[in-house]
Amino acid sequence: EAGVAQSPRYKIIEKRQSVAFWCNPISGHATLYWYQQILGQGPKLLIQFQNNGVVDDSQLPKDRFSAERLKGVDSTLKIQPAKLEDSAVYLCASSLAGGRASYNEQFFGPGTRLTVL
Amino acid sequence: DQQVKQNSPSLSVQEGRISILNCDYTNSMFDYFLWYKKYPAEGPTFLISISSIKDKNEDGRFTVFLNKSAKHLSLHIVPSQPGDSAVYFCAASGILVENTNAGKSTFGDGTTLTVKP
Fold first, then answer.
1. Of A50, A52, B46, B117, whose CB is crowded by the most CB atoms within 10 A?
2. Longest CA span, chain A
3. Which residues contact B100 (CB under 8 A, 6 or more apart)?
4. Residue-wise burial string across A63-98, b where 16 or more C-beta atoms lie within 10 A, e elsewhere
């Protein structure tokens, strides 16, 4: 079974530039998550999708971050414009169910390490 | 305010001995707890979980203990092996439909375990 795929693995940009990350979850997984992990901290949930609908985006800085999951499969996370404090690893995860129905373990991708100069 | 805390940033043990990693939580609505293991440049991988209806769950060398009254859980690894050296994240979630934490996890900041040969 293929795991969660993310690209790019690394990205270096200057502040005020834009950047986009891509995630392909495990086939058949209905729930997709984007996390931000700052160095020395645990992953912090940015947004959770159930199929192609948003379940929770309460911690997404909506003035600069956006995410979409078209057709309920792949997802993209965009930052525009980037700030220095956005430097972090962006992790995508998927699970079989989730949402408000039940809990299943999450499978994480390798992450994208973003450096904002 | 952090709802899930791992107060020990690092732990070093000798191969063959027991490793005990601790985690505290503050939100009494959490009723499902997980441990994830993370190697450098990889995403976290699920290790073991426990529901609040249990106080212990065992899987091979890994055992998780839950003390609901103290809002504390611990992960025991016996015997510890050098390959166990990684960052361990504690995560808390909800499993019931009416639980607002259902389907999503709140992570601690992790404990770096080093197992010396």
1. A50
2. 41
3. B29, B94
4. eebbbebeeebebebebeebeeebbbbbbbbbbeeb
Residues of B in contact with A111 (CB under 8 A): 42-43
Nearest to B43 among A98, A103, A108 (CB): A108
Measured CA to CA in angstroms, residue B5 lies from A14, A43, B11, B76, B103 at distances of: 33, 13, 15, 17, 20
Instruction: Write out chain B's pLDDT in tens, 117 residues.
Output: 789 999 999 999 999 999 999 999 998 888 899 999 999 989 999 999 999 999 999 999 999 999 999 999 999 999 999 999 999 999 998 766 556 666 678 999 999 999 999
The residues facing B10 across adjacent strands are: B112
CA distance A97 to chain B (A): 8
Mode of pairing for the β-strands spanning A44-50 and A53-56: antiparallel
Q: Which of B104, B106, B107 has the most A C-beta neighbours within 10 Å, making it the best mutation to test the interface with A?
A: B104
